[in-house]
Amino acid sequence: MNLIAYLKHMKKQRSDEGNAAMEAELELDGSREDFAGGVFINSLDDLTEEDITLSSAAAAKKGVSVFEIARRIMFWICLTVFAASCLMLVQNLIDKQRSVEIYSQLQEEFFSSGFNFNDIDAFRPEEGEVSYLAGDSEEQTMVSLSDRIAGIEQEMAEAAADSPAKKNNNEVLERMRAGIASLAQINPDVYGWISVEGTTIDYPLVQGEDNDYYLNHAYTGEFLPNGSIFVDYRNYEEINRNFNTVMYGHNITSGAMFHDMEKFIKDSTYEEYFYNTTINIYTNDGIFIYEPFSVYKTRMDYNYFKTGFRTTDEFITFCEEVKANSKHQKDMTFTETDRIITMSTCTNINNAERYALHAKLIKAIVE
């Protein structure tokens, strides 16, 4: 390259560098003007996540972690369980209230016809109006069941032949049977009625084709989680044919069904009550009065609900066995002519545990 050409090249290079410097200066001046006018700051409002290109390391961190996924899953599970629990609680309260309404109304209707029976009258029949059957509640609370029975045996014998007393009993039976017949029109599975003196146990008895249906059905046959008090399906319909008539009911914490059975176990004030109370069973066959002789907590696989006995000796042995299990002991003997009932309910402590109460028939009014 000659000198002239070299000088031309250097001049052009300086000219290009000058132009580039001038353009850079102009861009800087423009940026300064944009910054000063707020164009840069305002552009941040329009900036989106997609406008920023992340490095590979940053992109990996940006992904949802396993811990975060697990946390979200647990949150939704807990929320679902909480919502379901709330719904179940509300439904449970509704079911309990519906049960109270159904059975409270029924108790009023069953006794509305004037049928009012007190066990004291079974042992002391007298002449007079049917209204006498209400009995003397004060005397009843002052005299123990054993003393009451022992002290009136002679009076019973003398009054047995009195036609007015017999007429009174017959009138009571007829009214009672009319009440049961009206229930049977609602549901033919109606077996009778059970009433335990001094407790909230005052319900119709039903008997199904198995021991499952009435765990969650009312006496009417409609679905009801509180269920009914029901007789073991293996028992005879005629209660006096059963050596052991077994009845089941839920232990409802609100106090319904067989809840008050646990008072015989837990409440020390009921120890004396155990020796004096009676259990009345009303059926089409008559009025059957039982005296408790055993109450205890046991396992569900213990055969305390046995209904079939090959011999009368086997039945007597069974009675002696369950009597020995009792928390409270009572001097009572058994013969081949005796009949008992068994009441069973859950403890609400352990699903495998049950409360059992046995009572012996001490009086039957059948005509």
Write the layout of secondary structure elements.
Layout (H helix, E strand, L loop, with lengths): L2 H34 L2 H5 L12 H7 L3 H46 L7 H5 L13 H6 L2 H7 L1 H7 L3 H24 L3 E7 L5 E5 L22 E3 L12 E5 L14 H4 L3 H5 L4 E5 L2 E14 L12 H13 L15 E7 L6 E13 L2
Parallel strand pairs: 2-3, 4-7
Antiparallel strand pairs: 1-2, 1-5, 3-4, 5-6, 6-8, 7-8
Description of the structure:
With 367 residues, the chain is of the alpha+beta class. The protein has one domain: Beta Barrel (Sortase, Chain: A). The chain has twelve helices and eight strands. Strands 1-2-3-4-7-8-6-5 form an eight-stranded mixed barrel. It is rod-shaped and about 155 Å long. The chain starts with a helix and ends with a strand.
Question: What are the defining features of this structure?
Answer:
12 helices, Sortase, Chain: A, 367 residues, 44% helix, alpha+beta, 8 strands, 8-stranded mixed barrel
The average pLDDT value, as a whole number, equals 77
State the shape. Answer: rod-shaped
List the uncertain runs: 124-159
Computed CA radius of gyration, to the nearest angstrom: 42 Å
Profile the largest sheet: 8 strands, mixed, barrel
Corresponding CATH architecture = Beta Barrel
Q: Give me the number of helical elements.
A: 12
Into how many domains do the coordinates divide?
1
Q: Beta fraction of the residues? A: 15-25%
For the secondary structure, the number of strands is 8
